[in-house]
Write a structure and sequence with these properties.
Layout (H helix, E strand, L loop, with lengths): L1 H16 L6 E2 L3 H7 L1 E7 L3 E8 L2 E8 L2 E2 L4 E3 L4 H15 L9 H11 L8 H14 L6 E5 L18 H5 L4 E6 L2 E6 L8 E6 L1 H10 L5 E3 L4 E5 L3
Length: about 230
């Protein structure tokens, strides 16, 4: 398969340019096909450095016990600067910098306890919500969300993309709330000299029926004219 060949070439490039030292290269042929995993390097303490194919980019991060202990990094060009940064990450792993770093679950638990929050959703409900919004509703509903780690969200930035990058990379446990507008206007660009075409959408009844179908709790914010699904409150 051409896709496997491309992933293998990316893997060979990383192995030729980076000294992974005590890291053990895992056989990831099956995962390559399933989720675009290019390379998985494991150290003692179940610390991994993983690289994924993300279109023309690399996405890579450090995980421990299958949870991220570093940000997800992106690289469009595989140049000298990129390989130096990877080598720096490897050196930090070798020095034990990520062996005691808090996992996302630990940071979430600490934040929830510190702010005295109560969980209102779980992964199953969030996945049902995502399925409803991508597979069952007739029009993509604009939404915005806030994670537990953001101080505030003063201005909402509504978007309709429900891809793998949405909802904090589908890290549902980190979502404090999601706000949606099932009644909205779509502006279609017609050219520089022509006014945008405006289409009014109203899928409120569909949206509410799906929330009822999957027993997803929500509230209506009259001031913002949005529906709010709380992950925590």
């Amino acid at each position: 398969m051409k896709e496997i060949q491309i992933l293998q070439e990316m893997k060979d490039m990383l192995l030729s340019q980076v000294d992974f030292k005590n890291g053990v290269i895992k056989d990831s042929a099956e995962q390559m096909v399933q989720n675009g995993l290019v390379l998985d390097v494991r150290w003692k303490g179940n610390v991994h450095l993983r690289f994924y194919n993300h279109g023309v980019h690399f996405r890579y991060l450090v995980v421990r016990n299958e949870e991220a202990v570093s940000p997800a990094y992106f690289a469009g060009r595989q140049d000298e600067r990129f390989f130096k940064f990877i080598q720096k990450l490897v050196n930090e792993i070798e020095n034990g910098n990520f062996h005691k770093k808090k996992t996302m679950s630990e940071e979430i638990m600490e934040t929830v306890c510190r702010r005295n929050l109560t969980s209102c959703m779980n992964d199953t409900k969030w996945k049902e919500f995502l399925f409803a919004m991508t597979e069952e509703i007739s029009v993509a509903v604009p939404y915005d969300y806030k994670t537990l780690f953001e101080d505030s969200r003063e201005k909402l930035l509504f978007g309709t993309s429900y891809d793998i990058e949405s909802f904090n990379w589908h890290d549902f446990k980190s979502l404090e709330w999601v706000k949606l507008k099932p009644k909205f206007q779509e502006h279609i660009y017609q050219g520089r000299m022509i006014k945008d075409q405006i289409i009014n959408h109203d899928v409120e009844d569909e949206f509410l029926a799906l929330m009822k179908k999957y027993h997803i709790p929500y509230e209506y914010d009259k001031n913002g004219e949005v529906y709010v699904i709380y992950g925590y409150r």
